[in-house]
Amino acid sequence: MTHRPSGQQVEPVPVLSVDGLSIGARRPEGTLPLVKDVSFVCASGAVTALIGESGSGKSLTAAALLGLLDPDTYDVEAGAVGLAGLHVAPFASEKLAPARGVKAGYIVQDPGTALDPTMTVGDQLAELFEVHRGLSRAEARREAVRLLDLVRIPNAAARAADYPHAFSGGMKQRVVIAGAVALSPDLLIADEPTTALDVTVQAEILTLIDDLRRSIGMAVLLITHDLGIVYQIADRVLVMYAGRIVEEGDAETICAAPRHPYTAGLLASVPDLSRPGRATAAIPGSPPRPGFDEGCAFAPRCVRAEPACLHDRPLLRADGSSTVRCHFPLDVHG
Q1: Mean pLDDT, residues 14-43 taken together
Q2: Other C-beta atoms lying within 10 Å of the C-beta of residue 102
Q3: Is the pLDDT score of 2 beyond 60?
Q4: How far apart are CA 202 and CA 195, in angstroms?
């Protein structure tokens, strides 16, 4: 990191800034709130992990930022959203379409759904360069082979002629990653990129994403429920529960000294390979129903809950080097 003449560090450039994002599902009886007043920043060259259990609103948030939610099904509102200099709120799909792939790449959970089974992977990647860069077919094909080599697919020139069904799950994910970073986007959104992969392949994919982040200099928004991933590559962490951010801070601080009981519960559920005798603990109970908005949403599952937690919704407040949404945050000193 470079330094100012005064000796102060230069603040990382925010590639993505989100202020007051809310998402609701349209119902005959009214809008059902799913994501509520979410604000955060993704800095250039950094990995920001958005973590939480399934159903917490993580993938909805990512889809909304890229204009991928059906406007007939969802209401999306925000005070302001900036993506690499482009103001993207309100979230009109036609406004965001030119940004997808160019300013923001997207890795979906299931690589099989992202690839066209009727086209070779080389043709699918080459099409990106023909459409967005105006390259000739021959030039685009060379770029496609370069990308396959970049994401470490052996014998890239020959594999470019293969169809998706000829690739394993891990190799399909590499092809999807190649497509997501093809146009050197400012931001890469990776939505549970290792969910369907075995442990060894998961580690390879995470290393690949981190290496690409360093070489391209892009910001990464990594959506996951797996704290083990956070330990490996995240710089900052956003913890989401029931559609709200409940804790935010740098990864090292949050992993070492979580302030929110939910974050502590997530960390306690991660096996510690350096301490094989250490027991893991699941968080009791289940997340609240969609639309829950009374008191603290985590209170029914929290061993520290007091009567105030059941009735008074906590605000997100600065607490040391983190921000936390809790009436009674954990003591950093244990």
Answers
A1: 93
A2: 18
A3: no
A4: 8
| Per-residue model confidence as pLDDT tens digits over 300-317 | 999 999 999 999 999 999
Q: With beta carbons less than 8 A apart as the criterion, state whether 178 and 148 touch.
A: yes
Residues 42 and 48: their CA atoms lie apart, in Å, by 6
Of 120, 127, 116, 125, the residue nearest 148 (C-alpha) = 125
Burial class (CB in 10 A: 0-12, 13-18, 19+), 14: middle
User: Which of 160, 59, 146, 76 lies closest to 110, judged by CA?
Assistant: 59
Question: How does pLDDT run across 55-92, given as a tens digit for each residue?
Answer: 899 999 999 988 889 889 999 998 888 888 877 766 66
The single residue listed with the structure tokens 């997100």 is 316
Q: Has residue 191 got a pLDDT over 90?
A: yes
Peptide linkage before 90 cis (omega within 30 of 0):
yes
